[in-house]
Amino acid sequence: MSLWEGHLEDIDDDVMKFSQSFGIDKRLYREDIECSIAHVKMLGKQKIIKNSEEIIDELKKILSDIESGKLKLDLLCEDIHTFIEETLTKRLGNVGKRIHTARSRNDQVAVDLKLYIKKQIREISNLVCSLIGTISNIAKKNINVLMPSYTHLQRAQPSSFSHHILAYAFMFKRDLTRLKNCLENMNECPLGACACTGTSYPIDRFFVSDELGFSKPTDNSIDSVSDRDFALELLSSISIVMMHLSRFSEEIILWSSWEFKFISLSDSYCTGSSIMPQKKNPDMAELIRGKTGKVYGNLFAMLTIMKGLPLSYNRDMQEDKEQIFESIDTVKDCLIIFERMIKTMKINPENMEKFLKEGFVNATDCADYLAKKEIPFRDAYKVTGSIVNLCISKNKTLEELDLQDYKKSSDLFEEDIFDTINFENCVKNRTSYGSPKKSSILNQIKIINSFTKKYQI
To answer: Among the four 88, 135, 383, 436, which has the fewest Cβ within 10 Å?
Structure first.
């Protein structure tokens, strides 16, 4: 039976099957019962219905029976809201039918979805916090490991492994801020907006809002049931989390290749080849990178669903949950696997140092050496470029070149040029805020750890 039978009698079976959402929204059973309990409490308090305690007790039993497996979810039902209400009515008779007084499925599904998303944001945030903690620990353990930084995937300047991976920690820190902001923006309760224009019953929306843990009721009843901004904001935030995971995964994939060999992944997070016995493929990182596209697709699907809808509620909005649930599940799975993967990976400092010594990554320090002797930087840049060309012709690095060769380019070069272009000194002399200098790295770790320790939603 449909909740809307009465005016419409001849309902096509295929139409009923086509419009069912139970297979997707059944995971909202707990939120639907929480919502219903708060609603019935309010109806009883306002003396709109009798038997409120009886209804509440039975709703709690239904929840317990679902979670214990005693009550099986009926996949023939139209949706989870129908299932809960029909189960209640079967158990209590006409008393159970009173539950839907002064509400609609429009405001009911909106509040169920918000309650679910609020819980999920907390779970996702906890996983992001845990990942940041792991990155911080890895950075602290490898604080003396030097490596080249990159621009355009070309070796650029001397840096450190800790400095590099902490960049991701700060990306995830911003993700936490976005998730928290998403939670704050959606923390208004739509229940009581009913179909779209509220109700003539003397309901207390503020009571229900408090019962369900919202900051306040929504202010406009039409907006209450037509709004899915909170879902879009969540999908956008999740997409950015996935983008950061994908970028980090891309580097893990590169670093674990024979061409780099900066790291070695645990066998637990790799797979082999069906025909090549030597292969050790970074499949978990590749899958995370691939699943990012699916999450992006869900965001764009949701934007497309909402883009042309007139106010207020439209059935198109039933399609929101599949996008939301899939993205939530995906980001949680990816965060868990990714953290375990990097926690167990081994660092190869020797190969990082080898790459550091190739590619003239200390050339900027050479140019700065001259610029600090009052040569305009552009002139110093040009001189250093000619020295790099000389090194290439002689198959030498900057630190291997003779002082006489330096002096042919500029008389300002002295023996101390070799201290300046020493890789450890290049990193140590980066004194600007946020640089790879050891004291700066320790400060960055402190900032990250302090933020996650205080982070609460």
So the answer is: 383
